[in-house]
Design a protein that fits this description.
Order of helices and strands: HHHHHHH
Low-confidence stretches: none
Distance between the termini: 21 Å
Shape: elongated
Length: 210
Amino acid sequence: MKELDLLKKDWQKNDSSFTPVSEIEIYKMIHKKSSSIVRWILIISILEILLWTSISLFFNSDDYLKKIKHDELIKYFEALTIFNYGVILVFIYLFYKNYILISTTVSTKQLMKDILKTRKTVQCYVWYNLGMIVFSLIIGFVIAFTYNPDVAILRDKIANDGKIMAITIGILLLTIAVFFGLFWLFYRLLYGILLRRLYANYKELKKIDL
């Protein structure tokens, strides 16, 4: 925002000679920066899905399910994967649509609306991913606990000792909380900075629109 700050300082110095051109120049700069931010959101979301896809190639759940002799669960995981990719592709399309809208809008009020819409879309995207992470962890724990023969001894202990059950549940909840926190920080760093800059642009536009 350095260029915008300099322009605003110059505007304030020459307040007596202010003309509508100054507002137009500020609008153009905010418009350009907002378009650039949304473009980066789109690029990062595409890179993110490529990253998770690459990682998933090294952690194949099918092999694990075959190992514990429950191949019938594979089709459910495949359906979940297809659903998840479908939702993410919808979000990427929305990011692209928001980018086109912000890039082509010529109205200050409309640009403000598009900025708020983009922020809301990104926030929904982040919360969806965090929700899927928690859901996947819970499903993974349930399958491992229910079907994995390696935890048969632990299942017997839990069935006969309430204290062990409480400790096990506590460890699982702590694990979920840790993963949730790590991914929340990841998304906050990944998209949070861009969203804060986008909202700063919105506040500048609001000043102009007054």
